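Task 17 of the worksheet. Students: predict the tertiary structure of the chain below and write it out as structure tokens. Keep your answer in the requested format; marks are given for formatting as well as content.
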Amino acid sequence: MPIKKIILSVINLAGIILLWLLFFVFLYIFHQAATASFTEYPTFAIPSLVSLVVFPVITFFRLRSIWKKK
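Model answer:
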């Protein structure tokens, strides 16, 4: 396997790991917003809910693109 493909695979996997770290940050924010009783609930909850759907979809397509290259 050429060095360029190895480097690109490592970058893709690092991107996926960072994406999931961000996913858990949003999950934590959503949990805090859901358990708190303040008026900014929709401000925090809507982006967090969107991230719960979007991040796994992005991860699936990124992993699929990595697997198709091999």
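Marker's comment: Helices lie at 3-35, 41-69. The chain has one domain: 3-69.
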